[in-house]
UniProtKB/TrEMBL annotation, chains A, B:
Name of this chain's protein: TetR/AcrR family transcriptional regulator
Keywords assigned: DNA-binding
Pfam family, one: TetR_N
InterPro entries membership: Homeodomain-like_sf (IPR009057), HTH-type_TetR-like_transc_reg (IPR050109), HTH_TetR (IPR001647)
Entry keyword annotation includes Repeat: no
Record keyword Acetylation present: no
Domain HTH tetR-type: 17-77
Portion annotated as DNA-binding: 40-59
Coiled-coil region(s): none
One example GO MF annotation: DNA-binding transcription factor activity
Amino acid sequence: MSGAELAHRLPQQDRSRATRARLLDAAVDCLARLGWTGSTVAVVAERAGVTRGALQHHFPTREDLFTAAIEHVAAERMAFVRARLDELPEHGPARTEAVVSMIVRMYTDQYFRAALHLWVAAATEEPLRERVVALENRVGREAHRVAVASLGVDEYAAGVRETVQATLDMARGLGLANLLTDDSDRRTRIVARWSAILDAALAEQPG
Amino acid sequence: MSGAELAHRLPQQDRSRATRARLLDAAVDCLARLGWTGSTVAVVAERAGVTRGALQHHFPTREDLFTAAIEHVAAERMAFVRARLDELPEHGPARTEAVVSMIVRMYTDQYFRAALHLWVAAATEEPLRERVVALENRVGREAHRVAVASLGVDEYAAGVRETVQATLDMARGLGLANLLTDDSDRRTRIVARWSAILDAALAEQPG
């Protein structure tokens, strides 16, 4: 059944929700592949198979569309990670390495590529900047909470907050290093090494 | 004495060198402030106070101009760091922290901001992409060599290469985090914590 056929069988509210989801996916996909300059509202509408009017009904401005798209995918990724915490090794070095791998994966996929384009565009576009700063605060805080929960550490113990933050910053750096070339071999070695260091650093903590 | 007056007193070769240096500085400055889209050849020529023809005499294409500019500033920064290695504390935690601070500073200034714009633009512009990949390979290798030399470690000892690379990736992540807002307070705490962890991890190494 095609998307259009499916759409006709759904009640209005569900169709509206489906259109919104298609627009968000299309926006992230365009941003990751074409960058900010190439990702016009018209290009996203065409990719999602909706009219420009329908797009603007859901997202009045280009900034609304792209910040909503990045926030949506970020929330999905983190919910996915949270839902899988039970599947991780219970504790010790194996858990730490599984968590670091998972975090690094969040920062080296298509979503991060899209977020990076939005982030860098925001540096020189004022209406976008304010929106992205607010978005990054929310996403950054949630990433921190997910990392703390996954590692199973007490973030109020001395140094733990900074150690977790450093791990997220390293993951962002690895995401950047993966933008132009496939950096996965180097990354695998760094993730293994950093996991061992991190595990030892966190084990030292009292509490 | 103005730049123009100075230029007239210099022999042709020196004038040409001075023009080239002005163009490189203007290119990095434009890129950091205006991003890739805003940094046209015309904007850079105007900022440097030279004609478009003079610019094109030095740098036939836009790609030539910006990759040369980033490479030039990167080389300058690393030479600056190498020249100051003697001023660092001799060894131990104080040296490690001084080196980490120095590395992080390289990735959180105007130069890195400019490089980031070029890097992200290269992801969606094919003629630029190949040039930036080659450039980043050269700059990345030199950053690694400078970090190894500064830390005074044996990079052939097990895990050292990856530990140094993780530090550079974290520094890049901190650079990214500093793009839209002043991240210096958070960064100071992370640098202190990372330095302590890094120092312990490197001290463990045999040799």
